[in-house]
Amino acid sequence: MTLSESVIRSFVPDITDYTVESLGSGLIHKTLLVESGSHNYVFQGLNSHVFPDLDQVMENIEKVTGFLRSRGEPTLTFLQAGNGRPLMIDENEVAWRCSELVPDTVTYDTPPSPAHLKNAARAFAGFGKALSTANLSLHPTIEGFHDTPQRFQKMEAAWKAAPQDRQSVADYYAIRHAGSGFPEFGLDGLLAPHVPQAVSHNDTKLNNCLFREGSQEVICVIDLDTVMEGSWLLDFGDLCRTAICSSPEDTDDLDSITVDLDRFRALVEGYAEVLGDSISQAEKERMVYSVFLLTYELALRFFTDHLQEDKYFGASFPEHNLVRARSQLTLALQVLNQREAMEEIVAESFH
Q1: How far is 76 from 11, CA to CA, in rounded Å?
Q2: What is the pLDDT of residues 237-290, one digit of tens each?
Q3: Which whole-number Å values give the CA distances from 167 to 116, 124, 130, 159, 242, in the listed order?
Q4: Where are the domains of the chain?
Q5: CA 165 to chain CA mean position, Å
Q6: Of residues 220, 255, 345, the one with CA closest to residue 291
Q7: In sequence order, what are the residues at sequence separation of 6 or more whose Cβ sits closer than 8 angstroms to the Cβ of residue 3?
Q8: Taking the domain 114-349, which CATH number applies?
Q9: Torsional sign, CA 220, 222, 225, 226
Q10: Contact at 8 Å (CB) between 11 and 41?
Q11: β-pairing, 19-22 with 30-36?
């Protein structure tokens, strides 16, 4: 996937000297930084396999950023291409979009401090809370994205259809067994009617917050492709999944995978400061469960992708997604081991 000069000039017709380099660590789209003096841009070649209707993705993003801008809140600014649309299709049938680089900001794959985590939690909580009052009528850009029972069934189907050299029996049964970790909530405990559904970001990694360079302040939330209907618990659980363990999500050193309770406390306190007593008892009771469920769900997704020969996430080596699945499953089991301590932190923060 190559960014051509014609695509760049379609969005920025007056650009002169510029450089292009890779940006970020995302697995789905190809993200590039185009620097040209004091004006810098982020170009993304979009994955139409993951997002089959990119027009709906951009419609959602325009609604979300427009609403936030109307409230005076910082957000991303996407440019129109020469065709008058926010998407430009190149000669290889790749769809590109372009946004202005937010100056003097940085992202982090790992948190520099608990304060950074707390502010990220506040940012994602505030983002969801604000959008949930907006009545934006957002498209479901990926159907059943956090429908964990459906993810489980897709894993089962992938297992039956997988080539024999992709079938790891021990991993298959380990993943199936772990799904009963919270028997009182099952795998559908974050779906309607069990908890209220509003608007969720659905990809709340720490590196989807732009921090002001040299500070702990979050300027805005980015990566808006999956903003759609859902519970705020989906965002809380996924943010915890990515932040409460210092090991990378594709580590093969399973003994290094532990739950950092100080990090968890920072995230819970951040959400508590924004949501306070507005959440229901059913939601509060599911906060630790959400961490388990979102981690387990990603283990399912990585294992499914391994079985389907790495068509979704891609892989840097033949068993990359199997390694990822084992890592996430191990973290989900560590959450079960720390359940009591984590629930005490929730009770202290939402007193």
Answers
A1: 15
A2: 999 999 999 999 999 999 999 999 999 999 999 999 999 989 999 999 999 999
A3: 40, 37, 44, 7, 27
A4: 5-102, 114-349
A5: 30
A6: 345
A7: 20, 32, 34, 43, 45, 96
A8: 3.90.1200.10
A9: negative
A10: yes
A11: antiparallel
Contact 286/185 with Cβ under 8 angstroms? yes
Rounded Cα distance, 325 and 167, in Å = 13
Q: For 162-221, what is each residue's pLDDT tens digit?
A: 999 999 999 999 999 999 999 999 999 999 999 999 999 999 999 999 999 999 999 999
**CATH homologous superfamily of 5-102:** Phosphorylase Kinase; domain 1 (3.30.200.20)
Contact (CB, 8 A) for 7 and 88: yes
